[in-house]
Amino acid sequence: MTIHQQPIAARIDWLYEVAGRYSAAYCDPEASMARERHRARHPTALAVMKCMDGRINIPIATNTPPGIIQPFRNLGGFFDLGWPHLGEVIDHYVHDRVCGGQRVLMLITYHFSRGDAHRSCAGFAYHTEDAVAHVFGVKTQVEHVFGRQHGTVYPLVCGFETDEDALILHGPDGRTLDVSTLPATEDEAGLRARLQPLFPDMPRQMLADLARLVAGNIAHVAEVRQTDRQLDIEHREWMICVGRGFDFLHAPNLALIIGPYSPDLADPIRKAGAIIASNMHSGRIPDDGFLLLASSPYQDIGSDRARAELKARFMAHFAAEVIRRDLPDLAPRMTVHAAVLNWATRGLEGLGSPSSL
Asked: What is the per-residue pLDDT for 354?
C-alpha cells in the first residue's frame, strides 16, 4: 500500500517522519561541512523561483548539497514582484547576500515534459509557451528592481524538462542551451567556454559557478537515463501547504504548495481544495481526509519565532475558513495543522492540536 492509500492519520504521521529525517540529514556534521566546502569553492548565492511541483528538485538535479539553493515555490509557478510580500522577501534575501559580499544568480523556471504535454505545468493548462512568456515577464521585473546591467543580481530564465530532469538555459539573445544534448564527458572548463557566449555579461565567478551547476545536471541526467523511471503518475495530492518551509516535500503529486506571496490567497486555496476534492471523488486518494498545513520559517528564537507562530496560525485559520466557506462538502474531511520551521536546522515544529486553530 502506497502512502497515498493510507488512512489520513497514518499519512500525517508519515509526513512528520519525513520532515524529521530531512532535518536530521541536514544537521549531520558531514552534510554541514559539505555545504561549507561548497560555498567556499562556489561563492555565488543561488535562488530559484519555481512551481510547487515536487518533481522540480533543483538541488538533486544539479548534484548540489541541500541548503545551498534558496527556493521560492508557488502553485502553478506564478510570481509577480509587485506583490508586496513577495517583493519584500526577495529584496531581503538579495540584500542579505549582498551584505555578505555575494552576487546572486536567480533561476526563474518553467517546466514541461517532452514525452507528454499533460505532464507539463497544469498551472498554465499545459501550454508551455504561456509559461515561458510568464517567466520572461518575471525576469523583466527582477531587472527593474535590481538593475539591467546584471552586476549583482543575474536573472536567468531556465526550463526544466521533467522526464529527464534536464535544464534548458535561455540566453538574452534568444539562444538556448539544452543540457540534455551535452556529452557526459564535458568538463567544467568546456562548459564555461559554451556558456560565455550565451551569457557574455555574466561575472566570471558566477559563470564558473553556473558551469558547475550544468556539470552536475549532466551527471544527473545520465543517471536518470539508466533508471526505469515511472512517468505516468496520477495526480494524487492529499495535502494543501500554505506558507514557506516545505523543502522536505519533494515528491510528485503529494502536496499543493501555495506560497504566501499573492495578495489574493483565497483563489489558489480554492483551486487547491477543488483538486483535493476531485482526487477523492475519482478514488485516487481515500475520502477519509486531507491535511491543510501552514508553515512559517524563523531565523532566531524570541520575537522572530513568536511572530512566525502567529503568521502560521493566521494562515492556517485563513485557509481553513476559505475551505469551509467555498467548499463546504470538503471541509468536514479537513485536518488543520500549523507549524514553524527552524531555518538553522530545517526542523519542522508543530504548534499544537488542530482544535487550537
From this structure: 52
How many CB atoms sit inside 10 A of residue 233's CB?
12
Over its C-alpha atoms, the chain yields an Rg (Å, rounded) of 20
pTM of the model: 0.87
**Nearest-angstrom CA–CA distance, 70 and 75:** 17
- Taking the C-alpha atoms of residue 159 and residue 177, their distance in angstroms, rounded to an integer, is 10
Kindly give the interhelix angle for 204-225 and 188-198, rounded to the nearest 10 degrees. Answer: 120
At a CB cut-off of 8 Å and minimum separation 6, what does 318 contact? 265
The pLDDT of residue 1: 55
Between CA 14 and CA 12 the distance in angstroms is 5
Please choose, from the candidates 3, 2, 25, 26, the residue with its C-alpha nearest in 3D space to the C-alpha of residue 15: 3
59 close to 70: Cβ distance less than 8 angstroms: no
CA pair distance 75, 200, nearest whole angstrom: 33
C-alpha distances (whole Å) from 322 to each of 267, 275, 319, 335 are 9, 14, 5, 14
Does residue 125 have a pLDDT over 70?
A: yes
Sheet with 239-243, side-by-side order of all strands: 255-258, 239-243, 290-298, 334-342, 347-350
| CA-closest candidate to residue 258, choices 305, 322, 310 | 322
> Do 187 and 207 contact (CB within 8 A), yes or no?
no
Between CA 284 and CA 300 the distance in angstroms is: 41
Helical H segments across the chain, by residue range: 8-27, 29-41, 58-61, 84-99, 128-146, 188-198, 204-225, 266-281, 303-326
Using alpha carbons only, what angle is made at residue 182 by residues 178 and 187, rounded to the nearest 5 degrees?
Answer: 125
Domains and CATH numbers, the chain: 43-225 (3.40.1050), 239-356 (3.30.1330.140)
Structure confidence by residue, pLDDT tens digits, 97-112 = 999 999 999 999 999 9
Strand partners, 157: 108
The answer to whether 295 and 348 have CB atoms below 8 angstroms apart is yes
Distance CA 12, CA 112 (A): 30
